[in-house]
Amino acid sequence: YHAKQKGNHYLFFNDSMNEQAVKRLQIENLMRFGLKEDHFVVYYQPKMDIKTGRLVGMEALVRFITPKKGIISPGVFIPIAEETGQIIEIGEVVLDKACKDVKRWIDQDLFDGRVAVNLSAKQFSLPDLTTRIDIILQKNQLPSYFLELEITEGTIMDDPQEAISIMRSLSARGIHLAIDDFGTGYSSLAYLKQFPLNTLKVDKAFVDDMTTERGRNMVDSIVTIAHNLELHVVAEGVEKAEQLTTLEQLNCQTIQGYFYSKPLCASEFTAFLKAQKHRENEQTPQLKVVK
Ligand code: C2E
Ligand code: MG
Ligand code: MG
Ligand code: MG
Questions:
Q1: Structure pTM?
Q2: What's the 78 CA to ligand 4 centre distance in angstroms?
């Protein structure tokens, strides 16, 4: 332990606390620089329909690529960005890039679904959130129909009444809303039915737990709740064929995970879309629209 005298007070801290504080400050500075220098890049992970094997959408996932420290994982920098408030600017960069990429894929006739973008609690509670989103959509000439926002239970349970009104204004624009990491936070079932939601994402932890009967029952229950509330279900973090089979038996329509694809950079995702289109044209020539 070190002790520093500051006036009449002694501040005690140990080496690991000190190290952590230094690391946080370093990342904060890297993020400030990274925002100026365009070091935040968007990757996309496909969401696939289990039954048809078709792409139904994708999730935009931020990557922080620094020249000096290499790639810093969202698990490391997002919590710090949440605390410093930098997540607001980072979130808008991600939304802007996602809109730009999706607009291009739509124009190229490669895609006509929704892109899901994660929205942090800090962004969600901005008084001018809807205006900010409108501006970014308009700038990229992307209709709101193509956007889905993923929010966590914690974000909306903080002030559920306020959350309902924010969600209504987003929903009124045609933006879809998903609950991310469902089951890991503290959702109230009483409120769940009042939120204007479209999708519920089952957290990877539950998918991983499906090796036991209790674990399977748990996912079964979550899917049933979602369907009773007329929500679409997406299972996250699906890596194995057995998980896919079980999820299909449990009536989960959509999956996202390494089984189909890791998150891809925009050019890789373009190739993925082209391969998908090629496969669909071969499978269902009768559905081809002649323009
Ligand atoms: P999330 O929104 O729940 O995203 C899913 C995470 O699971 C992603 O991690 C994805 O790469 C990972 N994943 C997907 N399939 C698999 C799989 O089969 N196996 C394994 N092991 N992992 C899989 P990622 O990209 O590291 O992001 C972590 C979290 O950081 C996200 O969790 C989200 O909460 C946050 N995040 C990422 N991008 C953004 C963003 O643009 N804004 C905000 N606010 N948060 C973001
Ligand atoms: Mg997400
Ligand atoms: Mg998730
Ligand atoms: Mg997560």
A1: 0.92
A2: 11
